[in-house]
Design a protein that fits this description.
Elements: H1 4-12, H2 21-29, E1 34-37, H3 46-54, E2 58-62, H4 66-78, E3 83-86, H5 92-103, E4 111-114, H6 122-128, E5 133-138, H7 158-168, E6 177-181, H8 186-196, E7 202-205, E8 213-219, H9 223-236, E9 240-244, H10 248-260, E10 265-268, H11 274-285, E11 291-294, E12 307-312, H12 319-326, E13 336-342, H13 344-357, H14 361-371, E14 384-385, H15 389-396, H16 401-413, E15 417-419, E16 435-437, H17 451-454
Parallel strand pairs: 1-6, 1-7, 2-4, 2-5, 3-4, 5-6, 8-13, 9-11, 9-12, 10-11, 12-13
Antiparallel strand pairs: 14-16, 15-16
Amino acid sequence: MQNLEQILEQKFGLQSFREGQREIIESVLDKQDTLVFMPTGGGKSLTYQFPGVILEGLVLVISPLISLMKDQVDKLNELGLKASLINSTIDNYEKQIILNDISRDDGSIKFLYIAPERLNSDDFLRVISSVKISLVAVDEAHCISQWGHDFRPSYMKVREFIEKLRESKSSGIIFPIIALTATATKKVRNDIIERLGLQNLNIFTTGFDRKNIALIVRELSKKEDKQAKLLEILEKTPGTGIIYCASIKSCQEVYQFLLEKNISCAVYTGEMKAEDREVVQNNFMNSAYKVIIATNAFGMGIDKKDIRFVVHYNLPGSIENYYQEVGRAGRDGKNSFGVVLASFSDTKIQEFFIENSYPSRDEIKQFYEYLYKDFELGEGEKSHILKTYLIMASESGIKNDLKVGAILRVLEKYNIVKRGVSSFDMPSSFRGRGITLLLPKLKSNSIPIDWDHQNL
């Protein structure tokens, strides 16, 4: 084994490994599939970047986070380690240049970051099958699990891609896979192992205690008391922070209150346009605001070292969500705070979310029949439905648009529908995302859903 500490200093400018990093790196260098549970800010990226420097071939990093991809690629290039990315932010011309560079297989690109949606394009598969792969890293691996707090249907394609890639290597050389996440329940862990096809793997858990973050809970039943405590926190705590709210309405209320108090702030929610979200995020990263008020749509992959406080204005949806969100404070190792401003009414909000996030089998079948109501058996494939969630909830008899969203996530997971319609098929007057039907109409008892795995 080469002198790892010497390589660490020469290539990354670091003096020593953090807890668990060396053991994980050695597992990858031994070409073992590796599953890593490491706290937010614990140095996960080094555990696949370091082996990538030593192993011969291209390191493929699968990540759902556009902002984190760019940040990682920029940092690697600053270190003299050639890295590129392929995601929705680059045009076809740029993508072709990158694919041409990769196809030369001469080490001119050492790290390629790619969004999971881009894996199975014919052009990419053709090129990537012809080059030497040293390692595949799957970041934010909890996204592959329906039980994860941030399930992404696009991650369901990762195993198929890896299997195709391994089959294409006629020499029989097997590259290792490293899957990484900050936190995962037992169900999520099992899903990651199964859905990535990890074999003979080593599992590392480095501990989840963030000793530099002081956790505080205050029970405040009145809105006025919450607002007063929030203002006190902002006035007494230097640096920037995040305020998480359980709903868009709550975000707007807090935002208006802080504006009236002349606090520099902005709002970030999932209903905002992508370009608006990007502007807000970039401004926050550049410390243009004292605080950002957000739903849980904000934060995964945010690598801002000097966040001094995270306030939950409402109770978080789960322990996993809370751990991920509060862990965005204090990544520079300095003392930081996580404050929960709890009230009994918050539990009612979360009960509503929970009730509508897990649709029953009957509700899924009912909504499926609604989506295909204008088609006969065998018809409807590639058709578009241009209606908002609210309208579909009303017409289908499903309770509300939140449950419609939950049902669509299940149907998308099994490649029955896709949320979104191509811009060519989208009339300018329609303001929603639309639905694309991927399969022809089937009998309700033939819908390709693994009901046992759904655990409904």
